[in-house]
Amino acid sequence: MTIYYYHTQDAEHIISEWKRGRYPSHLLYGATCFAENGIDIVMHKHRQEPNRLLRMIRVAWQVMRCREQYDVLYGTSHRGLELLILFRALGIYRHPICLWHHQPITKARSWLREHAARLWYRGIDQMFMFSDTIVEISKQSVKARHERMHVVHWGADIDYYDRFMREHPSERSGFISSGMERRDMPTLIAAFNNTGLPLRIFSIKSYLGNDYEKIIGAIHRRENITVTFNNRLMIDELTAEVNRAACVVICCQPTNYTVGLTTVVEALALGLPIICSRNPQMPLDIEKEGCGLLVDYGDVEGWERAIRYIAEHPGEVRRMGERSRQVAERTFNIRQCTREMASVISQMTVK
């Protein structure tokens, strides 16, 4: 079986970096593992296009002019595929479309948008979602058929992290915040100001409407907190920084999707304990799995208690890290994820 592989980033460049050991393959959502499951790939030729409409037109033109034979179009996101999905719904594009749906399907605010979306969703044959909660919320919408939604356990490239830890052994100490999406910096910094324990923040100057440079700059920080804006930091360099920490902290704003999941699965693969905001969309309960602690949104005192617990219980922290790695090996890794996707994709045929 062959899929047309569509990614919102330059997948060919990322694969070349992965082969050099500089990039984890889970950010390619299965591209490096499909062959192990009997699935070949026709790779989409990526070109950066900031204009959304032009991107949709260009992608549709590229896909429909593809001369190579394939059975299913697989997308890591719907972004850029919007026009093709509409063509599929109208019967113009004949290949089944299977993609990752990153947020719950909900009712549109306007009547017109809702009915347009009902037509559009007919063009998606199968959807992969990150958690049971996202699927359950989506089932309340009439736009997508329940049997087309599949929970898939997206997880890290364990081979990458194993190799990294072998080649870069490190003493682990302190706490690290390395994510950039919807992070609640005021709550996190306030908690570490109060505890005095060491925190290294690796952020980005601005992302998804959050001006972190301005937000963090306006907050008084004690000397135990250092901030690095890592706009030019490579992924392997950031991995090295995370590998130096004793605990990963993920303090997020409320959302309706799995904010922080990438940081979670990478911490699991590195065998690190986690303190995380209590996001109900997450596919795993890190407290139930014994991998770390959960704190309610905006709860500074809750964060202080969790931080102090980690600092004062080294034996339990070690066991949390061991359990983190076990969860990664058992469930949340890219090979398991790709096997689950392949079982769905392999049953899809052109109609």
Short description:
By secondary structure, the chain is of the alpha/beta class. Helix content is 39%, strand content 15%.
Topology record:
Blueprint lengths: L1 E5 L4 H9 L20 E4 L8 H13 L7 E4 L6 H9 L6 E4 L10 H11 L4 E4 L2 H7 L10 E3 L6 H10 L7 E3 L7 H11 L3 E5 L2 E2 L2 E2 H6 L7 E5 L5 H9 L3 E4 L10 H10 L3 E4 L14 E4 L4 H13 L1 H17 L3 H12 L6
Parallel strand pairs: 1-2, 1-3, 3-4, 4-5, 5-6, 7-8, 7-12, 8-11, 12-13, 13-14
Antiparallel strand pairs: 9-10
Please explain how this structure is put together.
By secondary structure, the chain is an alpha/beta fold. The chain is 39% helix and 15% strand. The protein has helices at residues 11-19, 52-64, 82-90, 111-121, 132-138, 158-167, 185-195, 212-217, 235-243, 261-270, 300-312, 314-330, 334-345, and strands at residues 2-6, 40-43, 72-75, 97-100, 126-129, 149-151, 175-177, 199-203, 206-207, 210-211, 225-229, 247-250, 274-277, 292-295. The strands form three sheets. The chain has a six-stranded parallel sheet. A six-stranded parallel sheet has the order 11-8-7-12-13-14, sandwiched between helices. It has a two-stranded antiparallel ribbon with strand order 9-10. A hairpin with a 2-residue loop joins strand 9 and strand 10. Helix 7 packs across helix 11 (300-312) and helix 10 (261-270) crosses helix 12 (314-330). The longest helix has 17 residues, at 314-330. It is globular and about 60 Å long. The chain starts with a strand and ends in a 6-residue tail after the last helix. The model has no long low-confidence stretch (mean pLDDT 94).
